[in-house]
C-alpha cells in the first residue's frame, strides 16, 4: 500500500515539473516575442529619424544628399552667406579674400579661411572636414573635387530667371536649416520692394542701359544676362534689345552709348572691387556720354559693386539692389 501511495506521489510530482517547464517556455517565448517587437519598433524609429536628418537637394550640377542642420558649413557664395547671416545661422569656413564690407565680420579668426573664390584651399578644407559645402559659378569647375570632401551643392542664381531662382535657393536653405517660416518672411520683404519698383516702372517710358566699367573699357548687359534682371524682373525697357548675352557682357564704345541714348544708365564699377586706375566716373566723363538723356537728367546711376559684382543672390543684396534701382528711378 505504501509503495502504491509513493508511486502516485511520484507521478504527481512529474506532472507538476512538466507543467512548470511548459510555463517557463511559454514565458520565454513571450519575452522573446516582446524583444523582437521592441527591436522592430526601434528599427522603424531609427529609419524615421534617418529620413528626418537629411534631404536630397537637386541643383544645377547634380543631386546631393545633405544633412539637416549641418554643424560645419563652408560657404563660397557671398549671397548665400548673406542669407545665412540674416537667418542667424553660423558657418565654419569662408573665402576671406575680397569679403564685401557688409560681410566683414567673417574675417574673424573664428572662421576658417578656405582660400579664394576661384582658388579653394583644399588642405584647409580637409582639415576642417565640413558637413556641407555651398558653391556657385566661380567654383563650378571644382564641384567634383569639393564633393569628395563633403556633400556639395551649387546655389548660383539663374540669370535667365533671377527671382524664381533666388527664391528657390533661399527656400532650400530654409529646408536644410529648419528655417522655413523665417525664409518666407525674408522673401516677402524682397517681393514687397520688387512690387514697388514694378509699379514705378509702369509709369515711365524711359529706357535703360546697364554697363560695367573696367580700367577704361565698357561692357553692356541686356535681358537674360548677369545684371539683366533690371529688365526681366523690374520691368525697365532696354535701350538696346539686341545686346549679346555673355558672362562678361558685350564690349561697347562711348559712341554706342551715345547712339542708344538711354534715359537711365546703370553703372557697375569693377575697379572699385579689384582695383585699377580709372574709376567709372572718370571713364564715363566725356562728351559722348554726357550728351545722353541719362546724363542730362542726372540719371546716371552708380550701383554698389559690392552687391552687384561680388555678392548678389542673397536676401540682403537682392533687397538692396532692388532698392537702388527704385531710388535711382524716383530721385
UniProtKB/TrEMBL annotation:
This is Siderophore ABC transporter substrate-binding protein.
Amino acid at each position: 500500500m505504501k509503495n502504491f501511495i509513493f508511486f502516485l506521489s511520484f507521478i504527481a510530482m512529474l506532472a507538476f515539473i512538466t507543467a512548470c517547464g511548459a510555463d517557463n517556455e511559454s514565458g520565454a517565448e513571450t519575452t522573446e516575442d516582446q524583444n523582437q517587437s521592441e527591436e522592430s519598433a526601434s528599427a522603424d524609429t531609427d529609419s524615421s529619424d534617418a529620413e528626418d536628418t537629411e534631404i536630397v537637394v537637386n541643383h544645377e550640377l547634380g543631386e546631393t544628399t545633405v544633412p539637416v542642420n549641418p554643424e560645419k558649413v563652408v560657404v563660397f557664395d557671398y549671397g548665400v552667406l548673406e542669407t545665412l547671416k540674416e537667418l542667424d545661422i553660423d558657418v565654419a569656413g569662408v573665402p576671406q579674400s575680397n569679403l564685401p564690407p557688409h560681410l566683414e565680420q567673417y574675417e574673424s579668426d573664428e572662421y576658417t579661411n578656405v582660400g579664394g573664390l576661384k582658388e579653394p584651399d583644399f588642405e584647409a578644407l580637409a582639415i576642417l572636414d565640413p558637413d556641407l559645402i555651398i558653391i556657385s559659378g566661380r567654383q563650378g569647375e571644382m564641384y567634383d573635387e569639393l564633393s569628395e570632401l563633403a556633400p556639395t551643392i551649387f546655389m548660383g542664381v539663374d540669370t535667365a530667371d533671377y527671382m524664381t531662382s533666388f527664391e528657390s535657393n533661399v527656400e532650400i536653405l530654409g529646408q536644410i536649416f529648419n528655417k522655413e517660416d523665417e525664409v518666407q518672411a525674408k522673401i516677402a520683404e524682397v517681393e514687397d520692394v520688387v512690387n514697388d519698383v514694378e509699379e514705378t516702372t509702369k509709369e515711365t517710358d524711359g529706357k535703360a542701359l546697364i554697363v560695367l566699367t573696367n580700367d577704361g573699357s565698357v561692357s553692356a548687359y541686356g535681358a537674360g544676362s548677369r545684371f539683366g534682371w533690371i529688365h526681366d524682373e523690374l520691368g525697365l525697357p532696354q535701350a538696346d534689345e539686341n545686346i549679346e548675352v555673355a558672362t562678361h557682357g558685350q564690349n561697347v564704345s562711348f559712341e554706342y552709348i551715345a547712339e542708344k541714348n538711354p534715359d537711365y544708365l546703370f553703372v557697375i564699377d569693377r575697379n572699385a572691387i579689384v582695383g585699377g586706375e580709372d574709376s567709372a566716373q572718370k571713364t564715363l566723363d566725356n562728351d559722348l556720354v554726357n550728351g545722353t538723356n541719362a546724363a542730362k537728367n542726372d540719371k546716371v546711376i552708380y550701383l554698389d559693386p559690392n552687391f552687384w559684382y561680388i555678392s548678389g543672390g542673397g536676401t540682403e543684396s537682392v533687397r538692396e539692389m532692388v532698392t537702388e534701382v527704385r531710388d535711382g528711378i524716383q530721385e
